[in-house]
Amino acid sequence: MTAELIDGKAFALRLRARVGEGVARFRAAAGRVPGLAVVLVGEDAASAVYVRSKGKATVAAGMESFEHRLPADIDEASLIALVERLNADAAVDGILVQLPLPGHIDAARVLLAIDPDKDVDGFHPVNAGRLATGLPGFVPCTPLGCAMLLKDQLGDLSGKDAIVIGRSNIVGKPMAALLTAESCTVTIAHSRTHDLPGHVHRADIVVAAVGRANFVKGEWIKPGAVVIDVGINRTEDGLVGDVDFGGAAMVASAITPVPGGVGPMTIACLLRNTLVAAHRRDGIDYDAAAFDGIGP
Ligand SMILES: Nc1nc2c(c(=O)[nH]1)N[C@@H](CN(C=O)c1ccc(C(=O)N[C@@H](CCC(=O)O)C(=O)O)cc1)CN2
């Protein structure tokens, strides 16, 4: 292996510590602590683990955590009614509905019910529009974390050729918008892309978010490229990313591991977004650019 390992776990711990300091300053200025409400529907084991981690991290940063666990057979109207109560709750700065939701619930309708100014996941179409047009809003946590790692690794991203493999609303599209805002030349690749290896081979930055184990091969990577692996695939060999790590690490200049790369950044960025939400709601100045240098 020749690539440098991008330690997302360590970066996330530093970011969480900075959020904790920001919470202490907010508390002194506002006389209250930020609050994050997390809604979990059903018994999905991985989701339950993520929700528990979010609650613990929220409390560790000095914020208040409100956890709502609902049965898998809850109807959509009752879930939306809970979201509306949280929208109106003055102690709640951020609202997050853990995904995936059970099949009988239309996730898009539920996300639409969240007040965009409390949408710390950044999934509401209003926040997608704000990101696309450069207005202040909330950026989804996983791509925000990827962008932070990239800027930390490369500094100025301007003029870099970047490829984002995957076009989901949660990762691919916001990732492409963030890279565009950083003046990269961005290709969004997907299942219909012709000559994917050729596209990847031209990129200085590769962000893989396809959800297929070891999908991106080492020989596709341009020598010296930086590779960000968003995939979390459970296989018989354990947890692996979307990138063939062994092959890619031979040619890339830097690469995120799975686990310990992008994943931990997701929760750290959620705390960061919640702190930003609290500042905005109370009209307290918060220089997000000075804090992490990324995003609106
Ligand atoms: N409402 C949301 N739902 C989901 C999101 C989200 O951002 N908002 N993202 C994912 C799940 N997720 C957080 O919710 C998440 C995934 C992975 C990790 C992480 O730290 N992964 C570790 C490995 C953990 C493991 O062993 O399973 C790593 O990569 O090192 C944190 C959060 C889908 N749903």
UniProtKB/TrEMBL annotation:
CDD domains: NAD_bind_m-THF_DH_Cyclohyd. Its EC number is 1.5.1.5, 3.5.4.9. It comes from the Bacteria. Pathway: One-carbon metabolism; tetrahydrofolate interconversion. It holds the Pfam family THF_DHG_CYH_C. InterPro entries: Aminoacid_DH-like_N_sf (IPR046346), NAD(P)-bd_dom_sf (IPR036291), THF_DH/CycHdrlase (IPR000672), THF_DH/CycHdrlase_cat_dom (IPR020630), THF_DH/CycHdrlase_CS (IPR020867), THF_DH/CycHdrlase_NAD-bd_dom (IPR020631). Residues 140-280 form the Tetrahydrofolate dehydrogenase/cyclohydrolase NAD(P)-binding domain. Keywords: Amino-acid biosynthesis, Histidine biosynthesis, Hydrolase, Methionine biosynthesis, Multifunctional enzyme, NADP, One-carbon metabolism, Oxidoreductase, Purine biosynthesis. Belongs to the tetrahydrofolate dehydrogenase/cyclohydrolase family. Homodimer. This is Bifunctional protein FolD.
